[in-house]
Description:
Elements: E1 2-6, H1 11-20, E2 27-30, H2 41-51, E3 55-58, H3 72-92, E4 96-102, H4 125-140, E5 145-149, E6 152-153, H5 160-170, E7 173-177, E8 181-182, E9 185-186, H6 187-199, E10 206-209, E11 216-217, H7 218-229, E12 234-238, H8 258-264, H9 271-285
Parallel strand pairs: 1-2, 1-3, 3-4, 4-5, 5-10, 6-9, 7-12
Antiparallel strand pairs: 8-11
Amino acid sequence: MKILVTGGNGQLGSELRFLSSIQNQYEWIFTDLKELDLSNLENLKSNISKILPSLIINCAAYTAVDKAESENELANILNFKAVDLISKWSSNNGKKLIHISTDYVFDGSFETPLKENAVTSPINFYGLTKLEGEKICLKNDLNSIIIRTSWVYSSFGNNFVKIMRNLMKERDSLSVVNDQVGSPTYAADLAEAILTIVNHKKWIPGLYHYSNEGEISWFDFANDIKYLSNFKTQINGISTKEYPTAAKRPKYSLLDKTKIKETYNIKVPYYKDSLKKCIKILQNEV
């Protein structure tokens, strides 16, 4: 089976690339902007046809949440229009598709973990484009799988964990938002979950949620990074109002993982156990 991974140099794509050496029973094709430009809609379908994958894992997306408020067109192309073409191609050619989405399709007004059928109502343009991508994917390809995830980090790429560690090396104190609640996702764990789905005896399409176990704020997350990294930086909790951003963030976006755990027998690690693994890798890289 030939597997095409878009966004191959991103956090999740890089983790899948790392695991691909173990899962060498498949032919893996990793692409990024140079190899497969998803914004080039005119050539996207023909370029995928040249690769002719049996399965597409679409990790590529416009993820600059604040910039999306001003770069509407590019965010819409990558998160909606490209997904429209990819899902039509997979359906028309009888191929499989796993598409990655986000907790930002929700408005943050809930108080209990969000199931897949929870009401969506994005409060920023990034979330809106990702929701439209979900809808068109499900409309075009009834056999597709969509995985919503949240607060993704990795030893690869740029993310909250690496930013916090770099800042903690330089500063005596930091202020971090303490009234936005969810759960981090170690991209390596999500990559493992995706491979479990790929290797499963039965393909069960639909919408799924995946993040690590645990319920924390960004403030809690920063403190965990601090202690596990042995930094002494003072972390101060502040409200969302005290840290204005171009795009609004949901105050509560904890995902309920029951469906993916029961359907594919996936074991979801506790967030702090996974964070320890990632920080150990980052410490060894120094």
